[in-house]
Amino acid sequence: MLQAALGLVREKVIMPAIYFNNGPDKVKKEIKSEFARLNLSFDSKRFDLAYSKAWEALISFHHELKRIGKKTLENLGEKRAIVVVGRPYSAYDSRTNLNLFYTFSRLGAIAIPQEFLDLDEEEIESDYPNMYWGFGDKILKAAKAINKDHRLFGLYLTSFACGPDSFILHFFNHEMARTNRPYLELELDEHSAGAGVETRLLAFLDVLKNQRNVQVIDKSVNIIPKKTSTPLSERTLYIPKMAEGSRCLAAAFQGVGHKAEVMPTYTKEGLEFAKSATSGKECFPCTVTTGDMFDLINTLKEKQNKVGEEIAFFMPETEGPCRFGQYNRLHRILLDRLGLDQIPILSPSSEDSYRC
Predict the structure, then answer these.
(1) Per-residue pLDDT tens digits for 83-132
(2) Cis preceding linkage at 321, omega within 30
(3) What residue segments make up the domains of the chain, in order of their start?
(4) DSSP state of 349
(5) Beta-carbon contacts of residue 64 (< 8 Å; ≥ 6 apart)
(6) What percent of the chain has pLDDT over 70?
(7) Does 221 have pLDDT greater than 80?
(8) What does each C-alpha distance from 233 to 237, 296, 356 come to in angstroms?
(9) How far apart are CA 178 and CA 124, in angstroms?
(10) Which CATH number fits domain 232-352: 3.30.70, 2.60.120, 3.30.310, 3.40.50?
């Protein structure tokens, strides 16, 4: 995008694909390859020294953030504080957040970034085992930490039409609901104005002032459904009609002795329910499949079927970055919210080639 916008010449730009999780050797190899492409000299010893110093500086910076955060919470007493969660590149830039932290300070409120919280001990794997977005992982861990301290409340700063946030916001809301804890979702774009943001902040602070029944949880509450009385093999597996191949998949299940059917799709009743249960920011197939599931449940209930014992849903997952990998987690939350936690969702993963 930058090449096209700025008219950059590829032969004059160093463009390594860097993945720090792969370790310094892989990073070094990638950068060295780029230098070779551009006929530039590469000093391995200087690189190793620079990388080592930079890594130490980064670790030291993170430790300092946690130290400041710990001290802030120790000095907080019984005052309340707002934890700003989001992506650092938009949440902490005074231009993109419209001077959010300054405004809080001027209003007499204490606001801290999620990086001030020590999230090393927070665990989300049991509730969100497929959270492949790095920032999503950090945001949900921050939600867990907020729920453990009655003085903390969340402000989720998001950007207009952010794809991952269309799902992470559902999960964040689910976490806050566990402790009956209000939070503010603030969506900003280039048309947002400081005055409008301040009005929202004032309203949020007023809500917090009158909040009395906040709970605290000391451990994770798993959103994976409890064990059902009817095994999966005795249930009818309903498959979403996301393509004509869905019928082939249903036939494959039937061929090995499992009851399976393709769900009716795109019904008026289903879409109406889905639009009421989702935000409208998710990708449309998620909205459609959500509606298909709950319209099917209502149809079966009208026929006196015991849906909690007789059906299961098929909704596979991927390892990202596509949002499809989060569909089943959102569906699980919605089913549980409506008292349908006995209905299992079969979610084979792309990680092992969808083995069931």
Answers:
(1) 999 999 999 999 899 999 999 999 999 999 999 999 999 999 999 999 99
(2) yes
(3) 78-209, 232-352
(4) B
(5) none
(6) 95
(7) no
(8) 9, 20, 12
(9) 14
(10) 3.40.50
Render 242-273 in DSSP notation, one character per residue.
SSTHHHHHHHHHHHTT--EEEPP-S-HHHHHH
Contact 214, 180 (CB under 8 A): yes
DSSP 298-342: HHHHHTT--HHHHEEEE--B-SSSSGGGGHHHHHHHHHHHTT-TT
Exposed / middle / buried, residue 157 (Cβ in 10 Å: 0-12, 13-18, 19+): buried
Q: Are 157 and 97 in contact (CB under 8 A)?
A: yes
Query: Counting every residue, how long is the chain?
Result: 356
CA distance 356 to 352: 9
CB atoms within 10 A of CB 269: 12
Just give the CATH number of 78-209: 3.40.50.11900
232-352 matches 78-209 in CATH topology: yes
Show the tokens assigned to 320.
């990202």
Determine the straight-line distance between the first and last CA of the chain, rounded to whole angstroms. Answer: 40
Model pTM?
0.89
